[in-house]
Amino acid sequence: MSIRFLFALLLLGSTIAYQIANRFDSQETPVGFLYGLSGLIIVLSAVYGILLPILKRSQFLIIYGQIIIDTLCITLIIFVTGGYSSVFSFLYLVVVIYSSVFVFKRGSLLVALFCSFQFAVLLIMELNGYFDSFGYSGGSFGSTITAIQVFQKCVIMTAACFSVAFLSGYLSDQERKSKAELVAMEAHLGRVQNLAQIGEMAAGLAHEIKNPLASLSGAIQILKGEMENNKDNMRLVHIVLRETDRLSSLVNNFLTFARPSAGQTECVNLGEAVAEIVTLFEKDSSVGQRIKVDLKIISDAYIEIDPLQLRQVVWNLLLNGAESIDNGGKIKISVQKLKNERVMVEVADNGCGMDEQTVKSMFNPFFTTKPNGTGLGLSIVYRILETYDCRMDVQSKPGKGSIFTMYFKPVEPILKPQ
Is CATH 3.30.565.10 the classification given to domain 266-408? Predict the structure, then answer.
């Protein structure tokens, strides 16, 4: 909008200089038309500036509206500055370039088509004598052009518009992907630093709790043998033992989160391993027949990881997806290689989804949305993946499901001697 406003001022100043240099009357059609067009663009820039903060939810409509009006204004500028002989046809390319920033590659190709169509219609109408385009001297150029010239000019303009749209759209898409990747990396580094600080504190705390807990559990076991004849006391002893075991399990999980072991790493065929985990998951009694798992894998993706920890990671994600689905639903798992030399594993469900705040906090220890959850499952998963230089991204919308994406570092398969 700022550049458009400056362009309108430049057009206005150029028109004034042109009028003074050629001693034209401001009432002459070309000069008056340029004054009116300059004023229109200035007014539109002011209107856009007023509407933008008001219609924030409809920014896409405002963007397309500005692009369409800009192309029409450029067509009028070309018409009033000579039509076929106008030197301002390059302004279509400016619109195509800036549109790629907002509507990306596909949108910029549509803008290029719209610009080419307007230019072709203008020249064809000029060729057939429907109107005469004004030149710098106010003369008509309609009688001096031929159909071949119009065709060549239209082909050149169309080729230029689509070439610029393709290139600028491609660069815009790449810039958008790079920005999204950078944001994801910043979020990943933030989570890693946060979990590392919590892990250092958690390791010492877990050990301090675990030692007296073991002593307490042993003492209760001894007392249990002396209270077998007292039913009331035995009932209390069983409650204490049950809660002690539960607390011990929680401490063990907390210790795993604090200091996850690297495990016994080996070269694993990722596609086959995921397929095996999915087969076991589908037969699990807690899942039943209500969840359908769609699997899309490749057979030549290998990574270095402990198979047991890989099973823990994938199983936890599958279980979270299944628990987010109330009735029948679907979980999609895909394994594929990316151009950046990473292997991507994507787990997507059509469950209840999560809001933005939940996504930001879901990897924090003890954060859970489940009534009986401990809040350590995803934290442990993230810490395990961190030890293998693997990044996890999450995309989720309430009511539309969630997508967990893991990026593993591939390795060359180890060929076994025959």
Answer: yes
Q: Are 350 and 294 in contact (CB under 8 A)?
A: no
Buried b vs exposed e over 148-158: b needs ≥16 C-beta within 10 Å?
Answer: eebeebbeebb
| Closest to 195 measured CA to CA, from 263, 259, 261 | 259
Structure tokens at 133: 């385009």
* Beta pairing, strands 329-337 & 291-296: parallel
pLDDT band for position 257 (50/70/90)? low
Place of tokens 């987010």: 324
Q: What is the pLDDT of residues 321-338, one digit of tens each?
A: 888 888 778 899 999 988
Burial 270-292 (b: 16+ CB within 10 A, else e): bbebbeebbeebbeeeebeeebe
Q: DSSP code of 410?
A: B
* One-character DSSP codes across 334-376: EEEE-TTS-EEEEEEE-SS---HHHHHHTTSTT--SSTT--S-
Distance between CA atoms of residues 220 and 249, nearest Å = 17
